[in-house]
Amino acid sequence: MGFEGIGASVRRKEDVRFLSGRGNYTDDINRPGQLYAYIKRSDRPHARLNGLDVSAAQAAPGVVAVFVGADMAADNVGGLPCGWQIHSKDGSPMAEPPHPVLAIGKVRHVGDPVAVVIAESRQAAKDAAELIHPDYEDLPASATTTAALKPGAATVHDDVAGNVCYDWHIGDKAVVDDVFAKAHKVVRLDLENNRLIPNAMEPRSALGDFDTSSGDYTLFTTSQNPHVIRLLMGAFVLHIPENKLRVVAPDVGGGFGSKIYHYAEEAIVTWASAKVRRPVKWTAERNESFMSDAHGRDHVSTAEMAIDSEGHFLGLRVATVANMGAYLSTFAPCVPTYLYATLLAGVYKTPVIYCEVKAVFTNTVPVDAYRGAGRPEATFLLERLVDAVAHDTGIDRVELRRKNFIPADAFPYQTPVALQYDSGDYQTTLRVALKNADWDGFEARRAEAKSRGMLRGIGISTYLEACGIAPSAVVGSLGARAGLYEVANIRVHPTGSVTVFTGTHSHGQGHETTLAQLVVDQLGVPFDQVEVVHGDTAKIPFGMGTYGSRSLAVGGSAMVKAMDKIIAKGKKIAAHLMEASVEDIEFANNTFTVAGTDKSKTLTDISLTAYVPHNYPIDELEPGLDETAFYDPKNFTFPGGCHIAEVEIDPETGVIHMCNFTAVDDVGRVVNPMIVEGQVQGGVAQGIGQALLENAAYDANGQLLSGSFMDYTMPRADDLINISVATENTMCTHNPLGSKGCGEVGAIGSPPAVINAVCDALKDYGVRHLNMPATAPKLWSIIQAGK
Amino acid sequence: MPQVTLTVNGKQHTVEVEGRTLLVEVLREKLGLTGTHIGCDTSQCGACVVHVGGEAVKSCTMLALQANGSAVTTIEGLAKADGTLHPMQEMFREHHALQCGFCTPGMVMSAIDLVNSHPEGLTEQEIREGLEGNLCRCTGYHNIVKAIAAAHPLMHAKAAE
Fold first, then answer.
1. Which of B94, B104, B138 faces A11 most closely, judged by CB atoms?
2. Are B56 and B36 in contact (CB under 8 A)?
3. How many domains are there within chain A?
4. Would you call A708 an interface residue with chain B, using a CB distance cutoff of 8 Å?
5. In this structure, what CATH number is given to the domain that contains residue A561?
6. I want to staple A669 with a disulfide (CB 3.0 to 4.6 A). Which of A105, A235, A738, B154 is the partner?
7. Which residues share a beta bridge with A51?
8. Burial (CB count <10 Å: 0-12, 13-18, 19+), residue A43
């Protein structure tokens, strides 16, 4: 075996299982006596539900039960809770209308669950649902935030006048306005961040299993955070105490944020399983994913930069309208506020910033965090605005960035929007990216493309994000209704192998591998003797799961703390066995030694002694070698870097090709370079998807037009290219690993790099900005109009 | 109900199906071969690709009755009895061509058919175009393309032996 500790590209433990068809995803699980649920969903964007006759469905072959909102209300089932409260400028709490599990009184978006049919087979349930014809009274719908904010717009929730959830701000408006009034120049940009549908390849699934003898509930579900689901569903929706409710998130086929939230179907199958006293499984068809998984992004913004005569940024002013959809999804309110506006300083020393955000209800699927969550929106806005400054002033866009960067010796750096960056070196990531992308050779490539009749452009984005969420007290003061620490239990078994129980959850990230590498590094236990367990509330301590690129920075740090405790206890046992004082015991390479002697004991000697404590300091020390640590981070982590995109557009057709993509990121300490590279490539692919292909489209009445893979353009292999990935890392200064996180950087840095390249390619056509996605018809129209 | 007889991964099965039952439903629900996945309902994603008579087929798009009498290979049937992985599986692992693993079985089955049907070799662009019917949301395809390119000589060297 070669080196398998921190820094090794160890091949993944989980791969043989997945490659052999032995993964264990939720829909692969079947329980004895299992029934199948099919959800009858609203096909109306907005309607009053005047009647709901389900008798024909109840009488259909194979049907065991049909339930509607009133049945759940009669059982005192609560609505789906929201995990974050934002206060408006005037101090008032956000509007938080009820979110019934099954619709009561009204349906508010296409896909809103209306009834559930439970039957002996999937097909029987689906057939019976066809027999339900709700008595809808159609209402006018507000399909966009612009429409929802118009006077007299259709009101999504009767008691939320004007459809405004909150009207929030950050920064001192008067100070910023004053800077703008005195500035040499103000550059303004109006822009949209297009709405996306996450589309993890595994559709959501939930299997409720009520044990009639013990009264215990088990929910198998496609979740990124099983303990969060247990808490939310148990405490707020179904009123089941934690000791009677087990939530298992087994192998999960991708999340990207969309599997963080507590969804209606989880509550439906859990509750229904007890009603019918048999297990109940629901698995989304892809069309249901499109209309029930939380969507992402959907901002409309105005951004202004005040500059001096040399192009120094003096102040930034932003006004954003963010779409919440029809209901507040679990963490929706924090996305366009604390995960967005606090990032508007980016990598620049802009001294003052003011941002106001209006969150608006519409008759669309709820919007919540999707890979990057707020940071891609901030980065797109800022990096497009910086290019607009370059465009309007004639200053070179690289030079403009360089002169406004926070210098490498300025850390810790306090931004004007609450965050304090701990480390970074933006000049270096920029320099290396320019070199890797052969920026200097671009004009020759542009000329060569022109000789072929093609329009070639290059674009740059120097970005920063905040992840490793999050210090509990800080997020609590900002409205979070949860702590965001992480937990690890390290169990050294009697013969020296180790099981890690982590509160984080792996749904593609490869934790079974990387977290094992931490144990190899710190305890010296061989890689194949380390097992990582996650995803089952009956096994793991109460942890918060995986999102916000937090697993290594926060979850890994909890492991380091727990292993520190293992070593500390092991030293005491070793001191006893070797008749030395604890202070003289050293631990390295799986071995405890008495300093300055040849006396030593392996970790296995110590663990065996700990579990067979015949010769043991039993008066001072408990048996066992099993330690748990909770780690609450001191700060966010701040990965950043530089992404460069190069594109070619055919002016005759508008068809665009990616030519090169270069990423140079600072993600802090890297545990497994192979996995980091894969994470960045996957994130960049989603960013290119947003920039060029993907768009969740509604018609003016609120019908979802992009409701399948035939209508919503997912990036395919031939839409993409090889993505050059490198890291130039500075260490996080406040966690024991120095790691910052790598899961979201690709999706955050890449969209503005691509659009900046598109604008560069079209600069002779008077293009200063265009909104995503830059599709062929859009580009062709621009080129035709500019001819 | 009608019956179909299939030889799946070398083992013959006879099962009762409805006329509308899909091949993927027989594999997953009747035979417990859950390695074949369902990722969409419009034949777009390719998570359900298996081999029928040696060729890649989206098993969500074939009625079980249409497959009657066929030999079907699923992801579970690729590795040798002693656990030795097929070269395509091995190269996927070596090149980190999978993350969440959900698209992987269909991706591997498609990739094997692609390589089998191009003994003359495959350019990167041909591999990318050959993956037209398979969606992956995790990897950006970069490492999948690398893995398939690496598997090609291994598979054809094997075939020549």
1. B94
2. no
3. 4
4. yes
5. 3.30.365.10
6. A738
7. A135
8. middle
Mutate to test the interface with A, among B22, B33, B40 (most CBs of A within 10 A): B40
Please tell me whether residues A541 and A664 are part of one structural domain. no
Q: State percent of chain B over pLDDT 70.
A: 98
Asked whether residue A495 falls in the same domain as residue A579, the answer is yes
> Which of A759, A581, A775 has its CA nearest to residue A689?
A775
Residue A420 domain-assigned?
Answer: no
Per-residue tokens: B6: 């299939």
Rounded to 10 degrees, the C-alpha dihedral A561/A566/A572/A574 comes to -140
CB atoms within 10 A of CB A355: 27
Alpha helical stretches, state H, B1-40: 23-25
The minimum CA-CA distance between B94 and chain A, rounded to whole Å, is 7
> Are the beta carbons of B103 and B143 closer than 8 angstroms?
no
A23/B35 Cβ within 8 A: yes
Cβ–Cβ gap A722/B124 under 8 Å? yes
Nearest CA to CA, how far is B151 from chain A (Å)? 14
Q: What is the 3-state secondary structure (H, E, C) of A649-675?
A: ECCCCCCEEEEEEEEEEECECCCCHHH
Pairing state between β A217-221 and A245-248: parallel
β-pair partners for B92: none
Last residue of a domain, one of A237, A272, A292: A292
Q: pLDDT value at position B157?
A: 86
Task: Residue A215: give the domain boundaries.
Answer: 31-139+206-292
Report the C-alpha dihedral over residues A595, A596, A597, A599, rounded to 10 degrees. Answer: 20
| Chain A contact set for B127 (CB, 8 A) | 717
DSSP character string of A289-327 = HHHHS-BB--EEEEEEEEE-TT--EEEEEEEEEEEEESS
Say if residue A511 is in the same domain as residue A453.
no
What is the distance between the alpha carbons of residues A502 and A51, in angstroms, rounded to a whole number?
A: 47
Strand partners, A307: A185, A313
The superfamily (CATH) of domain B87-160 is [2Fe-2S]-binding domain (1.10.150.120)
Q: Would you say residue A238 lies in a domain?
A: yes
pTM greater than 0.95: yes
Task: Say how far apart CA B89 and CA B109 lie, in whole Å.
Answer: 10
Shortest alpha-carbon distance between residue B48 and chain A (Å): 11
Residue extent(s) of CATH 1.10.150.120 domains in chain B:
87-160
CA distance B79 to chain A (A): 7
Closest residue in A to B91 (Cα) is: A19
CATH code, B3-77? 3.10.20.30
Which of A15, A551, A677 is the best mutation test for B, with the most CBs of B within 10 A? A15
Task: Locate A502 and state its tokens.
Answer: 């982590």
User: Could you tell me how many CB contacts below 8 A there are between chain A and chain B?
Assistant: 176
Within the 220-259 window of chain A, which residues sit less than 8 Å (CB to CB) from chain B?
251-254, 256
Q: Which of A278, A482, A263, A293 lies closest to A369, judged by CA?
A: A293
Contact (CB<8Å) B34/A720: no
Q: What is the per-residue pLDDT across A593-635, written as a single tens digit (0 to 9) for each? A: 999 999 999 999 999 999 999 999 999 999 999 999 999 999 9
The complex scores an ipTM of 0.97
**Which residues in chain B have their CB less than 8 angstroms from residue A253's CB?**
37, 100-103
Burial of B66: CB neighbours in 10 Å, binned 0-12, 13-18, 19+ = middle
Q: pLDDT tens digits, residue range A453-508? A: 999 999 999 999 999 998 999 999 999 999 999 999 999 999 999 999 999 999 99
Q: Which residues of B touch A510 (CB under 8 A)?
A: 99
**Measured between CA atoms, how close is B154 to chain A, in angstroms?**
17
